[in-house]
User: Fold this.
Amino acid sequence: MQSYWYIACQSTELREKPLSVTILAHPLVVFRSVNNTIAALEDRCAHRNAPLSKGTVCQGQLECPYHGWGYGSNGGVTKIPALSETAPISENLCVKSYLCVEQDGYVWVCLAPTAARERPLEFPHLGQPGWTSFRMKTRFHAPVDACLENFLDCPHATYVHRLWFRTPTAKPVKAVVRSLEDGAVAEYFEEPREGSLVWWLLSRKRSQMQHSDRFIAPATSRVDYIFNDQRHYIITSSCTPIHDTLTEVYTVITFRFGRIGWLVRLFFEPLSRLIIQQDVKMLAMQQANIERFGGASYKFIAADLLAPYIAKWRTSLKTGSLPPPAGMEHQVDMRL
Assistant:
């Protein structure tokens, strides 16, 4: 899991001061170094273990708040105020540094010396002409697996988001699930839209909809709603595990609605924030109950389209075993 890219923060969150973040239970400090480049270090001074995130950035160097030790972007100590200027500084005086990159308005960090991918996954159509986007940052008191399953699970929406996003119609829906080289995708056919405020506002009644849910290992979900009138909505969520049961989710919603996209955003964004808070509440209840019983006990059914792939992929990455092979396909008849 450590060899993948995870979002540490939004670029706008990182200004003059260093920022404390935790990824996979690793406390880190990120800051802007020389020439405004991003650096990520272990968040403790090599001298007396003070948190470097409580320090300051001076001329591109991170300064410890305890004794003023300075650190460069590679984690090496650059100054020790208590010593004379001519005193040599041992190369052993350093803290661990991490791979980091700034992309799509986010700061990404990889905890391993070599990343599984050269660059993080890009958010689709972000900043492209004709597309409107907005971002959400949401903390879930739940593990990454539960968040991903929730984002890619249609049946829960008819109850958790009743009337807002879906309403139970009990209509038959055909779904086709395919395994991919980096995860799995589910495509839905003849999906009902009635009784939903979201689709009443964002789609024409007689337009045809193509809907797919995709899991991209290890921690990304992508949902596409494509209409035959050129409207297209994409919801991409990148999950950053803080620790086993706490996840920071960075969501980008990008859509194509023509010239009035900016106007659509005025009500689409607050509506999206309301809906995701319903998921926050439900997953917190689920996690609290799992802890109450001392552990989880899951049962999988055919309608849990992508949940088995999420579980198998993430287990394979943790254990080093083989993930599900690409090219498998099966059909599921379900009701929504």
Observations:
- The chain has five helices and 18 strands.
